[in-house]
């Protein structure tokens, strides 16, 4: 039943305010649904109780009573839907203003309309947020102004031009923002979608560079180019510059999405072995941390935590990474805190060459994430090679091979990359018996193999042996 799905989504606050809503004569005058809601509220901790209540109550009634009960349930459902809509309306600061202006205009309350309109515009101009939603609200106010002036026969060329301009700005910002979202998801789901007017929008913005003075347009224009032209350095650096302004003009949730566009651009270039982008992505991570964009509902995801630490380690920013690991440990999800922290601390010690502290962290942990597990086993293998512990290395490589065979969550790419890693590590471990020519052949073979885990380390270790 729909009503059960709605009620099971309720928070403690929802139960409190929904009851007040239903008891308000302005929204409801049916006493039966208040009684029904009160009964359901007592059963709110158990979904089974909800289902049993509706089924048992319906069985105990005759045909007419059953029809009346279903009517009451439908009435309650309708009232709860109205409550949900009202609740969202209350959360949206501009919704009430738009409807109030519309009501004043329709009632001919010109003086009150003008006073409220000017106050709303002044409030919008003074607020720090200047994203696409801001441009949309400016357009809504301009549209109300335009419609009110029509009623009084005092349209001006300035008003008409203002309407056209504000509509264009709102449309362009929203179109480009949505385009970035669509492209990001297209890559994940491998979809081909019709982007509609987007090519014309891009050409229009390109022909009118003054539009890029609006951060809400510039961010998503350069963001879209960064997503679709991953070798376009100019677009990336323009996006990076825009991020400085967006930090003051975008809400944190929206700013996070823009940072991810820039970070993914860098990761793509790093995967092409353009090491200069390591510094770029590290700078983005640090700026994002300072802006709070990576703290979602007061917490940081284990993947973001790991990626930030890894970027710092690759740049040998050891002191900064250690401070980061400690500082943000308690922001990790509780269930993943110990494993994620231990994994990254082990990697830190491993990169520093402090195997004595790294090994125990890895040997005693069974990480719940497949990639963490694979990386942890690879780190151990690297340490065993460096310390010459061949017996431990053979045992570990056998364990890693078994893990790759039995773990269904391992992707085919991961499986192949780590199988190649095992194969090359075994040959490197026996390198002392190789001729110089065979070592060079092995090095060329590793370089030519597309999927190899820890390829850079393998190449370095051959040169060092």
List keywords for this structure.
mainly alpha, globular, Serine Threonine Protein Phosphatase 5, Tetratricopeptide repeat, 4 domains, 465 residues, single chain
Can you characterise this structure?
- The protein is mainly α.
- It folds into 4 domains: 2-91, no CATH class; 107-281, no CATH class; 295-366, Serine Threonine Protein Phosphatase 5, Tetratricopeptide repeat; 369-465, no CATH class.
- Helices cover 77% and strands 0% of the residues.
- The chain contains 23 helices and no strands.
- The chain has helices at 2-8, 12-23, 31-42, 47-59, 63-91, 95-106, 110-126, 132-151, 157-189, 198-207, 215-228, 233-249, 252-271, 276-291, 302-314, 318-327, 334-352, 355-363, 370-387, 390-406, 412-429, 436-448, 455-464.
- Helix 9 packs parallel to helix 11 (215-228).
- It starts with a helix and ends with a helix.
- The model has no long low-confidence stretch (mean pLDDT 89).
Low-pLDDT sequence parts: none
Number of helices: 23
Helix and strand content put the structural class at mainly alpha
Q: Output the helix-strand order.
A: HHHHHHHHHHHHHHHHHHHHHHH
What is the rounded distance between the termini? Answer: 69 Å
Q: Shape from CA axes? A: globular
The main pleated sheet reads as: none
Q: How much beta, percentage-wise?
A: under 5%
Radius of gyration: 30 Å
The share of residues in helices is over 70%
Mean pLDDT figure: 89
Total beta strands: 0
The count of domains is 4
Q: What's this, in brief?
A:
The chain is mainly α and 465 residues long. It is built from 23 helices and no strands.
